[in-house]
Amino acid sequence: MNEDNWKYILVNGKYKTVEVKNPVYERGRLVSIEDLRPFEKITEPDIDPILPTVEDANDMKRRLYNSFFRKPFKNFLILAAAGASIDVKGPSMINLWNIAEAKYKIFIGDEVKEDGFKIILDAVKYTSDKKDIEALLSQIEGTCKFTEDKKVTLDGQAKFLSDIKDEIFSIIKDNCSIPKPNADEVFPHKIFLEKLLQRKQTSPRVKVFTLNYDLLFEYAATEINAIVIDGFSFTFPRTFSGRFFDYDIVQREGSKLQEEDNFIQRVFHLHKLHGSLNWEKEAMNNHVIIRDSPERPLMVYPREAKYEDSYEQPFFEMMARFQRNLRLNNDTVLVSIGYSFNDKHINAAIEEALNQNPSFRLAVIDPGFDNEGVSNSLSIIKRLAIESERILMVSETFSDFASFFPEIKTYENDNYELINLKNEQSKD
Q1: Measured between alpha carbons, how far is 182 from 193 in angstroms, rounded to an integer?
Q2: In the CATH scheme, what architecture does the domain 61-90+180-404 have?
Q3: Residue 26's beta-bridge partner residues?
Q4: 340-381 pLDDT tens trace
Q5: How far apart are CA 379 and CA 348, in angstroms?
Q6: Domain of life, per the record (predicted)?
């Protein structure tokens, strides 16, 4: 056993770090440690030392990040990626690879008759050992574009590589269609939004930027009776235009002498940077509309060409809004949830904010940020977080983070006591 195997579970500057020795995780949660530093329980020299527990580690971690988030940030931004959906039965990139691999394998009983997935990998010269569905789709697309859209024989039938690419796209679409959690299931999006949307009406609206295609934030908004400003019109069919992000919802009250606008509570902005399962582009006029269960949803699929896609509408508008909000030089925090820092255009915007915006803060919520094999960008951010209190990194699942995120006193609590006027007859 490696005695020096210390892992960070929280980093926020030189003097705000929490580490554990030889940690054991189950589904992203810390379940066992050997030691903890700093450990605050001190005993007398002649008394047996008190050994730290997992509860001690989590209490210390949550106490520190609660202190960070109790600051009354003016601009509160969320960046949600795949890790935010995994807690609600969403697929990881490795899951999608495994599903695609299983689709093209032909079995006789328990034995593999034909490994069609390997045939596809060989056809596009995919030689990496990594289960990277994005790299594979890029390889297929590159082969079709620069060589030829050749056929491969699978289970005795010839099939074009472009058709295989579309089939893998369908796998991604189908497996990202995550249903709303049941009433007895944990719904972190709902829990988190309910706390955030208690902010004062005078504060700027919370802005959620998500790389996920699913409708979990929309479901959560419905559950807590919140209003979503998502860039689409309030008329039917709901049609996209960037100007709708500049609209707001107010309650107008006043007299003939004075009239004031009163911004209502529970309103937030939702920007889906990579598209959505319920977006569709109309062929006749290129309008982007919201439609239930479209046949070809408008989504940026994981591959190298996704950076080109981001320059088309409505993705360009969403990305421009993301960059603009990161540049706000008046106390801005971006909370990244389950993002691996593998997207170049997203990383570039965050890098610029860290370099050019002195009031910008970054919080990274990721149960595996200190694991081996993370992206180079995430490793660089960890190194910066050790030196700077502008960056907070927390090893926490989204479900636990939503549960332990603090109720902030500067927020307004909308939990009013229910009044029940019973019309009972008098006994007299």
Answers
A1: 17
A2: 3-Layer(aba) Sandwich (3.40)
A3: 29
A4: 999 999 999 999 999 999 999 999 999 999 998 899 999 999
A5: 15
A6: Bacteria
